[in-house]
Design a protein that fits this description.
Protein name: N-acetylmuramoyl-L-alanine amidase
Catalytic activity: Hydrolyzes the link between N-acetylmuramoyl residues and L-amino acid residues in certain cell-wall glycopeptides
Number of domains: 2
Oligomer: single chain
Number of helices: 5
Structural class: alpha/beta
Order of helices and strands: HEEEHEEEHEHEH
Keywords: Cell wall biogenesis/degradation, Hydrolase
Strand content: 5-15%
CATH architecture of the largest domain: 3-Layer(aba) Sandwich
CATH superfamily of the largest domain: Peptidoglycan recognition protein-like
CATH class of the largest domain: Alpha Beta
InterPro entries: Amidase/PGRP_sf, Amidase_domain, NAMLAA_amidase_2
Enzyme class: hydrolase
Distance between the termini: 63 Å
């Protein structure tokens, strides 16, 4: 009496069921607690006056050299927690790399990009990606984008070297991968395409078809 045809008691089945329910509930609670801790930690860094730890000279792109821009040319943020990053803006320096670095280190310039790519392909980072650079001439675009300068002049197609295109494409592909930015012309744009801007860069000689093909290839290679 009390035993089923399989030899297991109904009461035993209920005990096993209750045990599984308790274990499952505990596991779910632990998972919920872990998510809560992660969200609390994320929110903590968004509290005014609280900043994530920063190491002097730290770069976001492996291989880049660090040269800090003037504090007057950017502002501290905690992107992508406080502002999403969904765009890359392509610029041209209208000068050589050294003059661009000098301008971005000048507090009176009031503008700077996160990166500069030289004609030799060398990448210089001057502002951390988590911070907002004053580069687009539009506050909303500044807050949601990464700015990349390219050494040269808009009216000199010879300034846009193979090394520059390839290096910049790898940099942009890495940024797109990091923030899940679509690799298309709606999210990778020229300074001239920013609403309200009076700039013309990267100009008519920037080969967008070539550049986007290189970015897609670099993104695919990174995923592989």
């Amino acid at each position: 009496m009390g035993a089923s045809a399989s030899g297991k008691s109904a009461d035993g089945d209920r005990r096993i069921g209750r045990r599984a329910l308790v274990v499952g509930s505990l596991a779910a609670a632990a998972g919920t607690a872990a998510l809560a801790r992660d969200e609390l930690a994320r929110l903590w860094w968004r509290v005014p006056g609280v900043e994530k730890p920063r190491k002097p000279g730290e770069v976001d792109y492996a291989g880049a050299r660090w040269l800090a821009a003037s504090d007057a040319n950017w502002r501290r943020a905690d992107r992508p927690d406080d502002y999403r990053i969904d765009m890359v803006v392509v610029h041209v320096t209208q000068g050589d790399l050294d003059s661009a670095v000098k301008a971005f280190q000048d507090p009176g310039h009031r503008a700077a990009t996160h990166y500069i790519v030289g004609q030799d392909g060398r990448v210089t980072q001057m502002i951390r990606e988590l911070d907002v650079a004053y580069h687009a001439g539009n506050r909303d675009y500044n807050e949601r984008s990464i700015g990349i300068e390219h050494e040269g002049f808009v009216d000199r197609p010879e300034d846009f070297t193979d090394a520059m295109y390839e290096s910049s494409a790898r940099l942009t592909a890495r940024i797109c991968a990091r923030y899940d930015i679509p690799v298309d012309r709606e999210h990778i744009i020229g300074h001239v395409e920013v609403p309200g801007t009076d700039h013309t860069d990267p100009g008519p000689h920037w080969d967008w078809d070539r550049y986007m093909k290189l970015v897609r290839r670099a993104r695919t290679a990174a995923q592989a």
